[in-house]
Write a structure and sequence with these properties.
By secondary structure, the protein is mainly beta. The protein has a domain at 475-659. Helix content is 1%, strand content 46%.
Length: 660
């Protein structure tokens, strides 16, 4: 075999002999190619290009880091009998193909972007371990087989496939390689999901398509897909319709997300742990928004999230699942959370008694058939609205408190009862108001504090004893393990940090979302996967996520973030959002002598990506922390300072990161 190495860390043409240490450009079945020259500038990046009209053959090709890219405008062929591997595990070297062709590719640890008509052909079983993203035209994977597709089980179990825009198409299988696909199941290769999910189908436009070869022609995968399960994710954006005659099931840790358009199935089922989100979909360039109309019956035993323009269910909703208006309480760190201040809308018809709709503020619940709504509404407050669509006028409402904190709101049209709504919560001292829109046959219901009753002056009596008013709610709590929400006043701060006034400390193992409503607070959560948010409170705060993977959101003041890897039982990955000058983050239990520290750009949850530190050590869980919006360049330009220390008071060794 002949060895070839790139001789400098700058971009250049493959066919230029002077760009290679051997003094000749590699081309032949015995050529083993390694491109590992460090970028010429710190934090830099370079690309090696095979120009249009140029055909190159290699035995092997190794891109040594994510800072090195390959552009194929011509043809790259891996020699017959070679493995056809490209890239390295746990990195995503970019591969750009502009109207080019890859022959005999095997395991591809690369982030693939294509423009024009692109082909993958050859005898090797291709395995796209990262992502195939079509920016323009059609990408056809017409090889002898696609290794991440289990033919016997009709299952696609790895890789992300994204048709990014109108007319963009991905074709899997084909006549040339003779590989036939019939994808019924989408799942991930890992037993538990990660924040980014493993197997993805992303439709970015009404004209985007992801197809499979059925032996005669290409058909859309959505026409055969029946199950979205562990670590699998389907995303439909920008008003594209998703249509299938199949019964579609979303199983535990499977996700279906849509913004705009219609979702039409032969019946939709969410199993426990399955997730359906609609209305807003974060993208690389912002967010796609639009109301989603869901046609057909839905059996919801999992979680439905309706955001922004939200979702309208035209069929019956049954099951024992949850419906909420914000993803923050569902998947901390999955992608950019929609703040609670964003108004959400949900429209439903017939709803079974097992469904609970939780409102979080500024939300609108529309009931198309008040007599058919048998679910429970939780969290209804002054900023929320329930709209009743009814041909008969809603002339009044009557509320009656009930057992277990669930009362009944009766809707009346004169002496006729139009329907009842089960309301969770206390409404003592509050009054319900009906605002008609007779032109639209709709009636808005709101709740507010009841006006004081007009009574004659009282006869003088002995003054009652002074009653100390209750403490205000300083912390909002959402327990994602139990599905409950509450508020807490917290305690007066008793620690050593100057300026802090209040604290909330818990050692719960549940997954909690904690939001500070008062400034200058100390928040310490337990060992679950928690979200702590001080962005609405102001002041200077301390956010201590303890162990577990956490999503920490800072505010405008100088905040301190704690991450604990001292007793983690599994890999942890925490994300810090709104980290800025004056903030600092401490990772306990990590030392440069015991852990390998790897800084990477552009990782983390979609929409909250940034500079990520991975701390690894043999036999120990991986500790990762993402600083959203930062890059490796900030380690050298003064924006970030990194130091190490050892707290002899008991906390032990740590890594300290400071925003300058």
């Amino acid at each position: 075999m002949a060895n070839f190495k790139w001789n400098k860390g700058i971009s250049g043409d493959w066919d230029t002999a002077g760009n290679w240490l051997a003094g000749a450009a590699p081309d032949g079945p015995t050529a083993d190619v390694v491109i590992d020259a460090a970028p010429a500038s710190a934090g830099g990046y370079y690309t090696v290009t095979i120009a249009a009209g140029i055909d190159k053959t290699v035995n092997s090709l190794d891109l040594a880091s994510s800072d090195i890219g390959l552009e194929v405008d011509g043809t790259l062929t891996f020699a017959p009998g070679s493995a056809g591997a490209l890239g390295r595990e746990f990195q995503s070297s970019p591969l750009t193909i502009n109207g080019g062709k890859i022959v005999n590719a095997g395991l591809m640890f690369t982030f693939i972007q294509t423009r024009g008509d692109v082909q993958f052909t050859g005898a090797n079983p291709i395995y796209i371990a990262w992502e195939l993203q079509v920016l323009d035209g059609t990408a056809t994977v017409d090889t002898s087989s696609i290794a991440q597709y289990d033919t016997a089980k009709h299952t696609l179990f790895d890789g992300a496939f994204e048709a990014l825009g109108g007319g963009r198409t991905i074709n899997l299988g084909g006549k040339l390689g003779g590989f036939v696909m019939d994808v019924e199941t989408l799942t991930g290769p890992k037993p538990t999901p990660t924040h980014s999910y493993w197997t993805q189908l992303i439709y970015d436009d009404p004209g985007s398509q992801i197809n499979e070869w059925n032996g005669t022609s290409y058909v859309s995968i959505e026409s055969t897909l029946k199950l979205i399960s562990n670590s699998a994710y389907v995303n439909v954006r920008n008003g594209r319709d998703y249509t299938t005659a199949n019964t579609l099931t979303i199983a535990k840790d499977g996700v279906f997300e849509q913004a705009g358009g219609t979702l039409s199935t032969g019946g939709l089922t969410l199993l426990a742990g399955g997730l359906l989100m609609g209305g807003i979909s974060p993208t690389d360039s912002g967010a796609s928004t639009g109301r989603v109309v869901v046609n057909g019956a839905v059996a919801n035993n999992g979680q439905i999230v309706s955001e922004g323009p939200g979702m309208a269910f035209r069929g019956a909703l049954s099951g024992t699942g949850q419906i909420t208006f914000n993803r923050t309480a569902v998947l901390p760190g999955f992608d950019t959370p929609v703040p609670p201040a964003v108004a959400g809308t949900l429209e439903v018809g017939n709803v079974g008694a097992g469904q609970t709709v939780t409102m979080i503020g500024n939300d609108t619940l529309i009931l198309d058939n008040p007599a058919g709504f048998a679910g429970t509404v939780a969290g209804f407050a002054a900023s929320d609205k329930i709209v009743v669509n009814s041909a008969a006028a809603v002339t009044g409402v009557r509320y009656a408190a009930g057992a277990s904190g669930v009362g009944t709101l009766t809707l009346n049209s004169g002496a006729t009862v139009l329907g009842t709504i089960a309301l969770a919560g206390s409404f003592a001292g509050q009054a319900f108001t009906v605002t008609p829109d007779t032109a639209a046959n709709s009636y808005g219901l709101t709740v507010a504090a009841a006006p004081p009753a007009v009574v004659p002056p009282p006869t003088p009596v002995t003054p009652p004893p002074v009653v100390t008013p209750p403490e205000p709610v300083r912390f909002l709590l959402a327990n994602m393990t139990t599905g409950t929400t509450s508020g807490a006043a917290g305690d007066a701060y008793s620690g050593p940090v100057a300026g802090l006034q209040h604290q909330y400390i818990t050692v719960s193992t549940d997954n909690l979302n904690i939001t500070a409503m008062a400034p200058n607070t100390f928040i310490h959560s337990g060992s679950g996967s928690d979200a702590i948010d001080v962005s609405r409170a102001g002041g200077n705060n301390v956010l201590d996520g303890s162990t577990g993977s956490n999503f920490l959101v800072g505010g405008a003041g100088n905040d301190t973030f704690f991450v604990d890897d001292r007793s983690a039982a599994a890999d942890i990955w925490s994300t810090v959002v709104n980290f800025h000058s004056g903030d600092d983050a401490t990772i306990f239990g990590v030392t440069p002598s015991d852990f390998a520290l790897d800084w990477q750009d552009g990782q983390g949850a979609g929409g909250s990506t940034g500079l990520t530190l991975h701390a690894t050590a043999p036999g120990k869980p991986i500790a990762s922390i993402t600083l959203a919006g930062y890059t490796k360049a900030d380690l050298g330009n003064g924006r970030l300072g990194v130091s190490f220390g050892n707290d002899l008071g008991g906390a032990g060794p740590y890594v300290y990161i400071h925003g300058n």
